UniProtKB/TrEMBL annotation:
The keyword tRNA-binding does not apply. GO terms for cellular component: membrane. This is Glycine/betaine ABC transporter ATP-binding protein. It comes from Streptomyces aurantiogriseus. Pfam families: ABC_tran.
Length: 412
């Protein structure tokens, strides 16, 4: 299992992408920069697809970019490796300035370090599965036998064993996307970038592929940037989610933060129908345990979802102890758990510390906050959304990466 660290893989600061004539003047002029989209278009003929966006993608996390169609998601992710040239702002990968990279360095970034998986697979129709998977290695100049060996390994990893000699036309949509994923993984990139890879798939296959991503991530710990306009997918996959609207990031947080404390009415409306108990962890509802409570009742992990704790409390009839590495760090009772379901328990960033203030043991929970709560949310969130995934309470790990020819093969 891989842990998420604070070390950024990508670090983005004040990023703008404006399409249209004399695009540079828009971010440079505070008046133009603050115009609503329609007015900006009528006054300048420009579209600001990405507006003043800043975020880090941490090593080992699944960073989801979510938003409605046209909100700027694809533009944003393509700017990361300059498949689209940013208009203003800075982008660093492992501390290196992406905007200052020359062609050779950029090619190396796209071929080796950040591989993309696209919605329409981008497979080469006349090549076999194996040769499609090996494609990224081929353009890296890896020798034939080595790339075939590597491709075979990855084909097995994504569950396509036995289909190596088929051509894309002989595969289902889900299988084709597995080839796309395998191709990305074959080059062993540091980051996998997914641009709505599953939106063309039917719901069951889509769920399969989501599971596949979670599994790969858990096994390999690869950093992933995953674009989707599907909230359930975002909640299920994301360690953190950046929610975009009209080119801006309106909220960036864990699924628990986004569902528990929406930044504004727009986000609130977006997450309105999410079953909160499947996203929120028991930390939200936890309070200090009395002496008696600390020794009795069912035990749940701090990563358990409210839904899981409700089950434990209902079975035992007693408040559940939240136990972290053998220590009771608090309790959750039925009132508090119902409060989360009803949405009457506000979530604030310090909630877990507040709930346990004064409790020595609680310090342990607060102390491991960043990684710990990430894992907690990861565990909880994966069971979230309209298509919950019960039993997904294990903290995850990260997966591996592809490379893509086809329409976007200019990248290579
Ligand atoms: N080459 C371009 N020239 C002009 N405008 C563009 C260009 N590419 C994108 N846009 C505009 O930028 C905005 C953001 O587009 P983008 O493709 O990033 O959205 P998206 O969030 O990925 O949408 P979708 O979910 O439909 O893929 C849209 O208004 C789009 O019309
Ligand atoms: Mg898009």
């Amino acid at each position: 299992m891989t842990t998420i660290t604070d070390t950024p893989v990508f670090s983005v600061e004040g990023l703008w992408k404006v399409f249209g004539p004399k695009a540079e003047r828009v971010p440079a002029d505070p008046e133009l920069a603050s115009l609503p989209a329609a007015e900006l278009r009528s006054r300048t003929g420009c579209t600001a697809a990405v507006r003043d966006v800043s975020f880090d993608v941490r090593k080992g996390e699944v960073f989801v970019v979510m938003g409605l169609s046209g909100s700027g998601k694809s533009t944003l992710v393509r700017c990361l490796t300059r498949l689209i040239e940013p208009t203003a702002g800075t982008i660093a990968v492992d501390g290196e300035d992406v905007r200052a990279m020359d062609r050779t360095r950029l090619r190396e970034l796209r071929r080796h370090r950040a591989a993309m998986v696209f919605q329409h697979f981008g497979l080469l129709p006349h090549r076999t599965v194996l040769d499609n998977v090996a494609y990224g290695l081929e353009i890296q100049g890896v020798g034939k036998s080595e790339r075939r060996t590597r491709a075979r390994e990855v084909v097995t990893k994504v569950g396509l064993e036995g289909m190596e000699q088929r051509r894309p036309g002989q595969l289902s949509g889900g299988q084709r996307q597995r080839v796309g994923l395998a191709r990305a993984l074959a080059v062993d990139p540091e980051v996998l970038l997914f641009d709505e890879p599953f939106s063309a798939l039917d719901p069951l296959i889509r769920r399969d592929m989501q599971e596949e991503v979670i599994r790969l991530h858990r096994e390999e710990g690869r950093t992933m940037v995953f674009i989707t306009h599907d909230l359930n997918e975002a909640l299920k996959l994301g360690d953190r989610i950046a929610l975009m609207r009209d080119g801006r990031v309106v909220q960036l947080g864990t699924p628990e933060e986004i569902v528990g404390s929406p930044a504004d009415d727009y986000v609130r409306e977006f997450v309105r129908d999410v079953p909160r108990e499947q996203v929120m962890t028991v930390r939200t509802a936890m309070r200090t345990a009395s002496m008696e409570e600390a020794g009795n009742g069912p035990a749940v992990s701090p990563n358990a979802t409210v839904s899981q704790a409700i089950e434990a409390v209902a079975r035992s009839g007693a408040p559940a102890r939240v136990v972290d590495r053998g220590r009771c760090v608090g309790v959750v009772d039925s009132d508090a758990l119902l409060g989360v379901v009803a949405g009457t328990t506000p979530v604030d960033a310090d909630n877990d510390t507040d709930a346990t203030a004064g409790d020595q043991a609680a310090a342990a929970v607060g102390g491991d906050s960043a990684a710990g709560s990430q894992a907690a949310v990861a565990a909880g969130s994966r069971a979230a959304g309209a298509a919950p995934v019960p039993g997904k309470a294990a903290p995850r790990t990260r997966g591996q990466a592809p490379q893509s020819p086809g329409t976007d093969s200019g990248a290579l």
